[in-house]
Amino acid sequence: MAQTEKKGGLLRKSSASKKPLKEKVVLMYDEIFTTEDPSKCNPRFWEELFLMKVNLEYLEGKLEALDGEELMKIKDNINCLFQHCIQALGEEHPIRVVNALQTLCALIRGVHQKNKSTSGFDIINMLVGFDKAELCMKNLMESLDSLLCAEGSESLKSLCLKLLLCLVTVTDNISQNTILEYVMINSIFEAILQILSSPLSRREHGYDAVVLLALLVNYRKYEVVNPYIVKLSIVDDEATLNGMGLVIAQALSEYNRQYKDKEEEHQTGFFSALTNMVGSMFIADADEKISVQTNEAILLALYEAVHLNRNFITVLAQSHPEMGLMTTPTSPIPTTPVTPLGTTPPSSDVISSAELPLDADVQTSNLLITFLKYSSIVMQDTKDEHRLHSGKLCLIILTCIAEDQYANAFLHDDNMNFRVNLHRMPMRHRKKAADKNLPCRPLVCAVLDLMVEFIVTHMMKEFPMDLYVRCIQIVHKLLCYQKKCRVRLHYTWRELWSALINLLKFLMSNETVLLAKHNIFTLALMVVNLFNMFITYGDTFLPTPSSYDELYYEIIRMHQNFDNLYSMVLRLSTNAGQWKEPASKVTHALVNIRAIINHFNPKIESYAAVNHISQLSEDQVLEVVRSNYDTLTLKLQDGLDQYERYSEQHKEAAFFKELVRSISINVRKNLAFNTLSQELLLKEFSTIS
């Protein structure tokens, strides 16, 4: 018997001796694409259609092939198909429901391709007709809500979420997607929460549910009252919030694990051996190959949860076993290919392992640690646009955390110590830190380490000014909390001071190049005021009196940098140029630093001369400092411990609009035919009673 092949809706014998035969569902689609009512000749047309396996490719291709005018001619049949799809969602037979859901996906995507400004029709009118739109969309949303909340098939729930993601992302700019008005009116918020609060549903659908929620929250968020924003901001159910946190932690952990695997593979490979042999000249090139696609969609979900819901802050510190260290006794599961900003969770097992009881021998982690590790990876390379957006979003999330009183309480809690292994950028002048030597410290130390790491590693020609400003602001907000609550943090403050002084040195060395693009005085002022914060209030939050002495030692030791900065800002503030005002602010801010340098330097020189010492040791300088505090006069500077709180709408609206647009495009791309045409659906529902 000749083998039968199937392609593009055609059935043909491999001998090709006869005219190709179209499969029945394709013939039925063709009837819909005429101006005649297909049920006229066959009253059971619609009933039969939803028993046929959907040919997504053919249906969507057929819709895309028509121009706007041709589509308008068959509008009645399109409306009829849409309405019958909605009716079929209420059927008892799962096969009909599956086929209806897939047909709706193809219809929405296919019709939306024609929704251009030149085509002269509205997508809602084209799909359902204005007169029936409200009732139809209400029925659709209620059916999807029922399917998502029912005890039934997980595959059906998965398809419902895919349809909703398809519906949300048909336009690049989701705020221009008029269909979403009906998703706002007929909310599925509770259904999403139910998925997140149930361990089984969360494992299967948590990722899609979280991404869907993040997108819905961003629909016209600056123009109207978005019910999803309102509802998300007041969620206080612990199981739901923890569920959301676990989904986000799992996705970020998977990214961290993939990066670590690639890094290890890279280090043990031939190229690594070659690098060791030749030297470190290839480090930059080698590092470029360690690239894993960032996941802005899940990061956006984390941001919205942290920004909108005060109760979610507690989830950040919720302990669970280190996901990367956990193993489960299940059989191996095939890994899903990771796609940029995708909607497919990398592996469902990680969440289940994270929900196991804590083992005393297993290193515990939490969402914040996982997020800090993720941030340390994506913030290494800000040249790539996606990583730049990810890095910026990471810093915005940390800004929200640094402003929150409760978050600061657990960040600085001495009883909550963790070993946080941040990724450090390979640099020629430093050795890679050994992971095993990491101490257990309060989480704020890891946040400060991350900020110091960023400051040290991004002084380059393409200077990421915006990220530096955010970085310094985060440090400032943490210091404000420490000063306010008199928290004496045992941290290696010298590393921060050294990084800040080197940053000032970089700004001065590259003054001409940087001033052509940035107002470097804003950043310089922030850095100087951090030192002023330590000078004015350091005795209330530095761990020991000797730490305060060391601050003075660093300022004196690096006085040349402060002298050079003063000369630069004085020069520009006395000229009538565009930088006169911002430079003069830095001049005034340097008053106490200059007072310290001018007070102690002569004393140190005198001590050296009297004791006939050409080069004083650190201890000798500190001795001079301690014995001359009483004659030092400093000016009290106002407002050092105050800051402007983060505001998304006024300052970040453009960034988020562009970010959500990028996420929408990528989510749509990843809702490919193969994710919708799931063979397992048909296997699962192979028998119809």
Automatic annotation (TrEMBL):
Residues 435-671 form the Armadillo-like helical domain. It holds the Pfam family ARMH3_C. Its main location: membrane. The keyword Membrane applies. It is found in: Membrane. InterPro entries: ARM-type_fold, ARMD3-like, ARMH3_C. It comes from the Eukaryota. Keywords: Membrane, Transmembrane, Transmembrane helix. GO terms for cellular component: cytosol; membrane. This is ARMD3 protein. It comes from Struthidea cinerea.
